[in-house]
Amino acid sequence: EWLQVLDRLWTEDRVDFDGRYYTLKDAIVQPKPTATADRPRPVIYAGGESEAAKTLIARHCDAYVMHGDPVDAIAPK
């Protein structure tokens, strides 16, 4: 939920959000992070090995941080 809120705050002028953990009404974040046409907000990195973590990362993040495993262990991920 935090990642959804953060993404919206960085890319929208005003945000309403009513979730399990966060409730926002007309929230504003200014100044916004630097944006470009191909990157509307900063890159969000996250890591984790559990299936729940990998699912969250795939849905809400831009990059998967992998630990110092050998290349043959990282390739399938």
Number of extended strands: 4
Structural class: alpha+beta
Low-pLDDT runs: none
Q: What is the rounded Rg? A: 15 Å
Structure description:
This protein is an alpha+beta fold and 77 residues long. It has three helices and four strands. It has helices at residues 2-11, 51-60, 71-74, and strands at 15-18, 23-27, 45-46, 63-64. A two-stranded antiparallel sheet has the order 1-2. The chain is elongated.
Summarize the structure.
The protein is an alpha+beta fold and 77 residues long. Helix content is 31%, strand content 17%.
Defining key terms:
single chain; about 80 residues; alpha+beta; two-stranded antiparallel sheet; two-stranded parallel sheet; 3 helices; 4 strands; elongated
Chain-wise SSE layout:
Blueprint: H1 2-11, E1 15-18, E2 23-27, E3 45-46, H2 51-60, E4 63-64, H3 71-74
Parallel strand pairs: 3-4
Antiparallel strand pairs: 1-2
